[in-house]
Write a structure and sequence with these properties.
about 250 residues; alpha+beta; Arc Repressor Mutant, subunit A; five-stranded antiparallel beta sheet; 11 helices; globular
Length: about 250
Amino acid sequence: MKKLDRLSALMGRFDLSVSATALDQANLVIMADQTTGEPTRLIFAPRDFAVVEPTASEEPVFCAYACWGGATNPLLTALPQTVETPIEEGSEMVHIAKLLQMEGAAPRCGASAMLDRLGGVLLIRVLRWQMEQGTTDVSLLGGLADARLSRAIVAMHDDPGRNWRGDDLASLAGLSLSRFSELFKTKVGETPAAYLRRWRLLLARQDAERGDRIQTIARRYGYGSPEALSRAFRKEFDTSAISLRPT
């Protein structure tokens, strides 16, 4: 059986940019041992600048600001205010951290693209670590960390326009409808229908900003008419920030 990919469809909807910056303007910081130079931990603050408290033997060796969809990215809003991930000796994260340090210290041709890609790899590691630790609060990551719920959540991410019924999603999770609904609310913090609605509208907003027509968007995400999508859109978002093109 193919292993479930819990992150790719969701991550692919948000562009990531990583720019080296000063420590007081950074939300992504790599700490290293002062004596050996070996990376020790990663600090990531998804919604603010990072507050770094180095130990007596540490120093920051890479400081950057990672912009990844802001408040619209449900992965970022699901993370704690600050995430600290250990960088174990000999792990792949050590090599990634050292490459980021090199690119940030001496910018060369293609450095910006390198920082974006390496930063993306590092943040995937952060998300994986959070799910593996099982220490996330009630959030999307809490649902993705659950082997049963993740199957239903990934299905919604992969096929948002499908006419998903509660029974369909519960069946994917291998649970009764009542147990699925209860567990989803406990882990994710909202009902499956509410999460699916927000996901669809978030995608609709991205598509509208890209210039797609409202009739096309409505059909793409399972709305019966452009008017139905517009009503849902006005209820969810501040429409003054976006222009929905007519049919």
